Amino acid sequence: xxxxxxxxxxxxxxxxxxxxxxxxxxxxxxxxxxxxxxxxxxxxxxxxxxxxxxxxxxxxxxxxxxxxxxxxxxxxxxxxxxxxxxxxxxxxxxxxxxxxxxxxxxxxxx
Amino acid sequence: xxxxxxxxxxxxxxxxxxxxxxxxxxxxxxxxxxxxxxxxxxxxxxxxxxxxxxxxxxxxxxxxxxxxxxxxxxxxxxxxxxxxxxxxxxxxxxxxxxxxxxxxxxxxxxxxxxxxxx
Lengths: 110, 118
Fold this sequence. Notes:
The structure holds 2 protein chains of 2 kinds.
Chain A: E1 4-6, E2 9-12, E3 17-24, E4 36-40, E5 47-51, E6 55-56, E7 64-69, E8 72-78, E9 87-95, E10 98-101, E11 105-109
Parallel strand pairs in A: 2-11
Antiparallel strand pairs in A: 1-3, 3-8, 4-5, 4-9, 5-6, 7-8, 9-10, 9-11
Chain B: E1 3-7, E2 10-12, E3 18-25, E4 34-39, E5 45-51, E6 58-60, E7 68-73, E8 78-83, E9 92-99, E10 105-108, E11 112-116
Parallel strand pairs in B: 2-11
Antiparallel strand pairs in B: 1-3, 3-8, 4-5, 4-9, 5-6, 7-8, 9-10, 9-11
């Protein structure tokens, strides 16, 4: 059973920088897992933020960036704003057509 | 602009069946893979199934394998999810999403709620 791990919650001050991570229970995350990130606010559908590790989706501001940090995928928000307060999900491609989401990180901006 | 509109959700008894639809517009539907993703109340996202652009390849999560069938009708620009032998744990909002080169789910519908309850 593949488990994709994310921090359950995180807090950042307005204008601050935060890095959310996405790991695997039994392996290191690399670009070969095609990490992607999604943002979801309550009651809304998810929105694509980042794909192929570090490619921003259309319309996503450049204060969002993606990378591999150590053995995890990472999403960094630089200069956090109030409307960044959302749930963030990573998704990894496990091969053979199978995708797995992480459990999500609830980001609070305060 | 890309639009995805799910329908077919509702309340269904355990063990019964339901078929969801996702009407697509604003892009060349027959050129892209499509996904179903669900979200149980108060829980995270769960990938359910993927179908290739031509319908020839289909993939499922372990939790729905053998019970759910993803399909598409490219002549109608519509994606489907046939759900059989429904269980209480299938209760969720079901989203359809457009695939972007098998690397990303770049557009999402607003979802349709399925409630499995007696």
